C-alpha cells in the first residue's frame, strides 16, 4: 500500500510541477502585454517581440545590457525633472510611498520597469522559447538575462534624470551606498551637472538604526558627484514616510 501511496504522490507532484512550468511560460507574455496595455499608445504585441529578440536563443549568462538597446529605443523615457526617485535596499518603503502619493516615480512605474517587475525570464541556446524557471540568479553570472535588463533600464531611467533627484537609501544597514548596487554602479554615474542640480538622499531609519548621514559610504557617494551638484542627506524615519504615504493632503515638500 505504501508503495502505491508513494507512486501516487510522485505522480501528483510531477503533474502539478508540469502544469506550473507550462503556465509560467505561457503567462510571461500575457503578464507583459496586460501590464503594457495599462499604458496608452503602445503596440504591446510589437514590444513583446522586441523584448524577446534580446535574449531568445542565447545562453542566459551571455546577454549583455546592450542586448536591450532596441527595447529602450522602442520605449524612450520621457525627460522629466524633479520627479524621479531612485532607491537601494528600500524597495518596499519607496514603492508604498510612490503608489500612494503622486510626488515621485521609480523606474518600476515606467512602462518597461512595470511590465517586468518581479518576473524571471531567460532563453536557451538553440531554442526559440522563453523560460521562466531554471534561469540564472542575479549573482550567478554577470551578464544574465534579468540582471542585464535591470542594468539597462536603470541606465536609461538615470540618463533622463534632471533637476532635483531623490534617492531613498537604507539606514538600517552598515553600507547604504553599496558599490555593487545598481544605484551605485549604474545610476549615480549617469547624473551629470548641470542637468542634475541636486541629489537629495533620504536615509530611511528604523527604531534601532545603525547608520546616519555621516556614514562612510555616503562620503563615497558625495565624491562621485560632479562639481557643482548640490548634495543633501536627511535621516527620515520609516514611520514618517508611511505617515506621508497615508496622508495625501500633506504637500510632498513637507514629507521630509
Ligand atoms: N539577487 C537578486 N536580486 C537582486 C540582487 C541580488 N543579489 N541585487 C539586486 N537585485 C534586484 C532585486 O530585484 C532587488 O529588489 O534588484 C533589486 C534592487 O536591489 P537593491 O540592492 O535593493 O538596490 P539596487 O541594486 O541599488 O537597485 C535599485 O536600481 O532598479 C533600479 O532605479 C532603481 O534606483 C533603483 C535601483
UniProtKB/TrEMBL annotation:
Which Gene3D superfamilies has this protein been placed in? ADP Ribosyl Cyclase, Chain A, domain 1 (1.20.82.10), NAD(P)-binding Rossmann-like Domain (3.40.50.720)
Broad class of enzyme this protein falls into: hydrolase
User: In the record, what terms sit under GO molecular function?
Assistant: NAD+ nucleosidase activity, cyclic ADP-ribose generating; phosphorus-oxygen lyase activity; transferase activity
Designated name of the protein: ADP-ribosyl cyclase/cyclic ADP-ribose hydrolase
Gene Ontology cellular component list: plasma membrane
Q: Which family does it belong to?
A: Belongs to the ADP-ribosyl cyclase family.
A single Pfam family it belongs to is Rib_hydrolayse
Annotated InterPro entries: ADP-ribosyl_cyclase
Amino acid at each position: 500500500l505504501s508503495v502505491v501511496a508513494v507512486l501516487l504522490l510522485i505522480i501528483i507532484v510531477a503533474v502539478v510541477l508540469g502544469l506550473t512550468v507550462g503556465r509560467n511560460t505561457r503567462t510571461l507574455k500575457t503578464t507583459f502585454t496586460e501590464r503594457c496595455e495599462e499604458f496608452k499608445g503602445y503596440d504591446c504585441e510589437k514590444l513583446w517581440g522586441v523584448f524577446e529578440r534580446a535574449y531568445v536563443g542565447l545562453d542566459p549568462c551571455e546577454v549583455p545590457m546592450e542586448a536591450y538597446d532596441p527595447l529602450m529605443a522602442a520605449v524612450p523615457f520621457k525627460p522629466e525633472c524633479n520627479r524621479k526617485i531612485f532607491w537601494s535596499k528600500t524597495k518596499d518603503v519607496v514603492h508604498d510611498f510612490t503608489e500612494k502619493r503622486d510626488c515621485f516615480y521609480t523606474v518600476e512605474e515606467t512602462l518597461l520597469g512595470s511590465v517586468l517587475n518581479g518576473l524571471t525570464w531567460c532563453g536557451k541556446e538553440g531554442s526559440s522559447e522563453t523560460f521562466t524557471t531554471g534561469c540564472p540568479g542575479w549573482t550567478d553570472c554577470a551578464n544574465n538575462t534579468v540582471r542585464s535588463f535591470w542594468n539597462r533600464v536603470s541606465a536609461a531611467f538615470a540618463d533622463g534624470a534632471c533637476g532635483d533627484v531623490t534617492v531613498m537609501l537604507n539606514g538600517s544597514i552598515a553600507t547604504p551606498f553599496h558599490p555593487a548596487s545598481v544605484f551605485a554602479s549604474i545610476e549615480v554615474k549617469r547624473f551629470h551637472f548641470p542637468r542634475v542640480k541636486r541629489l537629495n538622499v533620504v536615509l530611511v531609519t528604523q527604531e534601532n538604526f545603525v547608520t546616519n548621514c555621516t556614514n562612510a559610504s555616503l562620503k563615497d557617494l558625495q565624491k562621485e558627484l560632479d562639481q557643482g551638484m548640490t548634495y543633501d542627506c536627511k535621516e527620515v524615519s520609516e514611520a514618517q514616510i508611511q505617515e506621508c504615504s497615508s496622508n495625501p493632503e500633506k504637500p510632498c515638500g513637507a514629507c521630509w
